[in-house]
Amino acid sequence: MEWNKIIESIKSSNGNVLVIFRTFEGPSALEKSWKNHLEQAGFKITHVINWWNSNGIFGMLEITFEDRRRIFGLWALGDQSKIIRIDKDVSTDLAGYLNSIAAGNLESSALRLLRDQY
User: Fold this and answer.
1) Which of 1, 54, 73, 107 has a CA-to-CA distance to 96 between 20 and 30 Å?
2) What is the 3-state composition of the chain as percent helix, strand, coil, each rounded to the nearest 5?
3) What would you measure as the largest C-alpha separation in the chain, in angstroms?
4) Which residues pair with 52 in a beta bridge?
């Protein structure tokens, strides 16, 4: 994973950050990895939650920092870890993504983007 890009995006943003990426890590390992990298970079984490669909091939990671900003990681399993896109200062209204994940389908354009990359 390109951690320098993620960390710089968080530092240069006044709001929330959305990272859309592919990963070879499963949901539990992914959550531990993100938490570890962000804490090593000096971010104070207060809350971590990870949602994924029933077969565990795509999901969303949400990490809340001490300053109340959040980073959202919209992920899909793949054979490599690769950032697709980083958006800064995003809204916290990500219900559409969560509904797509819960339904096990690719309704949102961001989730379709992940599917179409490989």
Assistant:
1) 1
2) 35, 35, 30
3) 36
4) 59
Q: Where in the chain are the domains?
A: 3-116
Intra-chain end-to-end CA distance of the chain, in Å? 17
Tell me the C-alpha distance between 106 and 64, whole Å: 25
DSSP label at residue 108: S
Task: Pick left, alpha or beta for residue 54 (phi over 0 → left; psi -120 to 50 → alpha; otherwise beta).
Answer: alpha
Per-residue model confidence as pLDDT tens digits over 61-98: 999 999 999 999 988 888 889 999 999 987 766 655 65
pLDDT at 52 over 60: yes
